Each structure stands twice: as C-alpha cells, then as structure tokens.
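Exercise 7.
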Amino acid sequence: MDAILLQILNGLDKGSAYAMIALGLTLIFGTLGVVNFAHGALFMIGAFCAVTLNRILNLSYTVVDETQKDFLGNPLKVDVPYVKGIFGDAFGNAIIDWSVPLAILFSIPIMLAVGYAMERGLIKHFYKRPHADQILVTFGLAIVMQEIVKYFFGANPIPTPAPDALKGSIDFGVLVGLDVNAVVYPAWRFVYFCFAALVIGGVFAFLQFTTFGMVVRAGMADRETVGLLGINIDRRFTIMFGIAAAVAGLAGVMYAPINSPNYHMGMDFLVLSFVVVVVGGMGSLPGAVAAGFLLGILESFASMNEVKALLPGIDQIIIYLVAIIILLTRPRGLMGRKGVMED
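Solution. The predicted structure, written as tokens, is:
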C-alpha cells in the first residue's frame, strides 16, 4: 500500500506537467485548429522566467563591511543584493527565497505577450494551411526560441531553488492514516500538483462560467455561426492563445525547482504532451487533463524496479504503447468528439 501510494503521488507530479501543457495545446487546437509544435518552448520560457527573476533579485552592489576583516585586518568588501538594501535584510532575504512563487506574477504578462506576438506575428498566417505546414513552421519557431535561450543563458542546467520552507518533505502517509514515515514525499512536488490543480480548475471555470468563455466554447463548436452573430471571435481566439501560453509558462515556472531549467526542456515535454493530447482526444479539454494524469501514473508505476525487472525498458515506452492501443481501438481518443480523427 505504501509503495502504491508513493507511485500514485509520483504519477500525479508528472501528470500535472503533462496535463497543463496538454491543456494549452488542446486550447490552441480546439480554438484555432493549429498544431502548435512551439508549445513546449513556451513551457521552457516559463521556467526561464523563474531563472530571470531570481537573477534580478540577486543583483547586488559592493559595500565595505567593517565587521568583517581579511587576514591583514582590513575591512572586507561584500556584495549586498539591492532588495536587501531597499527592504532590509529580513524582508529582502524572504523576497529572494520566494523568487519562484513570485515568478508566477512576473511570468504572466510576459507569457501573454509572447503568446500574442506568436499568434499575430506568425501563426495567424497558417490557419488555412495544412497541418504539415503548421507543424514545420511552429517546430522551426521552437528551435529559434531554444537557441535564443541557449545564447543568453548557456547550455547547462541552471539550479533554481524552491523556498527554504518547502525544500523538505512531508509525511503524506500520516495524512491518510498510515504509519509515520511510511510515505514521505518532497513538499515542493506536492505543491506543484496542488498548483496545477488550481490552474486547471481556473481555466475550466473561466470557460464554463464566464461570458467570454461561453463564447469561446461556442466558437470552438461552430466558428462561422458565432461570427455571423457579430462577435469578433478571432480576437477572442487570439486572447485564448495568450492564455494557453500563460498556462504553459506557469507550468514551467513551478517546475523549475524540480528539474533545473535548460534550453531543451521544452522539447523533452513536447512529444509526450502531444501523445497525451491524442490519447485524451484531439480538441477535448477534459480528455487532455485526464490523459495527462493517467499517463503520468502509468509511467510512474512502469518505473518501479519490480516492473522493470519483468519488462526491461517498459518505463521508456509505456506512454507510446498506450497511445498505440488507444489509436487502434478508439482513434478519436478517450474523450474525443465522434468523427474527429476517425475519417
């Protein structure tokens, strides 16, 4: 029971990233009909927003500290971050320590702007082009964005620590009635899952309960009819592209302490996220989320030593194996609309 619960938690952790990226992919495909292979790069940019804010907060100036002496007895020169000089040591340290959560606020306008620029500057010209053209141009855009990040931040992963208060572990087993230390889980990974659930729930609530969201859902079902009602559905879909970019960026921001950001992390998640979208059903938002968590849990169980001893390498192919089975038996995906991908 302990091992099963731990693997479920690991699966929810991985599934959270898959689900958030796949949700954004599905929003773009469902509204604009665009297969966006640059979506993984948006996840990467979000992670580097956390890196950037951390570096900004650590910008410092040099002062002479009379309380510290070198071996000759001379006062030492020390670097003091500007935030400490402005807000004081205690509050300044707290701001630096919580730079990753603060990067959520920092990244939202950046990701909205990046998404808007991508859609207006490039992708809008490929709405009526074949999906193959869309894949080629967005994949090329992803490579360009990758190389820009590599140029400014280098090729090596950049450690981005979680706040000190959330670096430890929580005894999750006690919370569900198990023995002490039976299931100990990293606190930040649990925070990531809760954050993902909050973001996903917020997106669904926005689409379900706001007038803007209802118009978008109507446009996804019948774009021409909504346009005939005098509604500028194209502008709303552009905004949805920005929201999808922001969701991917937020996933990247909070993932930075789990996996140190590097320039190719977007590509690492992109292919898996497309598999998630296909398994869940092209254009199905609930399907993308459900498939993300389901495949995350399956991947987690497949990575157990007992399973790999019986089926070596199964952890590397389990997601693709499930995708093959789904496509052979139910081409539209688990929750896809009838007729989609079934021609």
